[in-house]
Amino acid sequence: MKLTKDLVAASAAPLVLTILAESESYGYAIVKRVDELSDGEIAWTDGFLYPLLHRLEDSGQIASRWGVAETGRRRRYYAITDSGRGELAAHQAQWRTVVATLRTAWAGSGAALRVGVTSRIAVSSRIAVSSRVAADWRLA
Amino acid sequence: MKLTKDLVAASAAPLVLTILAESESYGYAIVKRVDELSDGEIAWTDGFLYPLLHRLEDSGQIASRWGVAETGRRRRYYAITDSGRGELAAHQAQWRTVVATLRTAWAGSGAALRVGVTSRIAVSSRIAVSSRVAADWRLA
DNA sequence: CCTCTATGCCTTGCAGTTCTAGGTATGGAA
DNA sequence: TTCCATACCTAGAACTGCAAGGCATAGAGG
Predict the structure, then answer these.
(1) What are the tens digits of pLDDT across the range B80-90?
(2) Cβ pair B18:A129 closer than 8 A
(3) Which residues pair with B42 in a beta bridge?
(4) pTM, full prediction
(5) CB–CB contact A101 B135 (8 Å)
(6) B50 and B82 fall within a common domain
(7) Which of A4, A14, B10, B104 could bridge A91 with an S-S bond, Cβ 3.0-4.6 Å?
(8) Residues 67-126 of B with CB under 7 A from strand C
(9) Which of A 57-76 lie inside 8 A of B, CB atoms?
């Protein structure tokens, strides 16, 4: 699926900060990680990521150090800063706001997708409880 | 809360299409509706909306007609087209993809927010089943 | 030893977009 | 008469993003 560039742009910084909040990482690996997390749907080029990393570093949200991989290659490792953690929290709040708005708007009618997980616990030999946690996305 | 312009840009077209999918509307009212839907968090200026409407019309996703309100004012009413409905569905699929990715990434640890609804049904005088449908947002 | 692939990092320029700041007009209320 | 809310529109300065290029090397396979 082709994603609009606006959506890619909007999710870029939050994704990078999230990945670096997990653990220190470097450019090439971040691209791979995003590919993984998105199941191949979000495909960044390195030419997209590097300038973003530089911008985030310039604004103090992440910090870098040069290192050498076990393989002998040189890598620039990035780590999130406290300021970056704050920004990440702000991004999350903003996404919640916008997603809540879209969800409200889309709550019109006609279910488009339901994603969920069902679990089942036997209370006794004759009675079981089935629980489902689900998110509904509806078409207007 | 201040929203990043990327996030505003990414949600703009989907929001307009969604609103017009509900019913025909016009510029001024769309701005108000977005304010309403977002609980005041998404504040568009008219200078932001009009060019967007023109772009959507140019690309055939919406169509306009001039009309006169009960109040006597002239208004340009917009309606969604079939092509627009298709685009809207595409936007929804894209948002699902990106939101799913972010949710996966944020599923690390430390619950940040849980929103949900709980319902309870008595199966008999001694047994009740409580169900909860919830969405979890976690900080990494 | 040579070549190819994967890994790894970086920058520039110009085509494109975008929002700020401005303009126009009018119904109704004070 | 004035002011506010309603209602629409656009020019162009300012920004920006990304395609395309460049550089370097480890390891595999021949």
Answers:
(1) 999 999 999 99
(2) no
(3) none
(4) 0.76
(5) no
(6) yes
(7) A14
(8) 71-73
(9) none
**pLDDT bracket for residue B110 (50, 70, 90):** very low
Spatial separation of the C-alpha atoms in residues B60 and B64, rounded to whole Å:
10
Does one domain contain both B26 and B81? yes
Decide the pairing of beta strands B74-80 and A111-122.
Answer: unpaired
Cα–Cα distance measured from residue A1 to residue A39, given in angstroms and rounded to the nearest whole number: 11
Please state whether strand C lies within 7 Å of residue B2 at its CB atom: no
Residue that is written with structure tokens 């949710």 in the block: B103
Are B46 and B114 in the same domain? Answer: no
pLDDT (tens digit per residue) in A29-45: 999 999 888 888 898 99
Give me the domain span that covers residue B30: 5-104
The answer on A129 and A62 residing in a single domain is no
- For chain A, how many structural domains are there in total? 2
Three-state secondary structure along B62-128?
A: EEEEEEECCCCCEEEEEEECHHHHHHHHHHHHHHHHHHHHHHHHHCCCCEEEEEEEEEEEECCCCCE
Whether residues B137 and A96 touch (CB distance < 8 A) is answered with yes
A70, A133: one domain? no
pLDDT band at B50 (very low <50, low <70, confident <90, very high): very high
Is the distance from CB of A27 to CB of A46 less than 8 angstroms?
yes
User: Are B65 and B123 within one domain?
Assistant: no
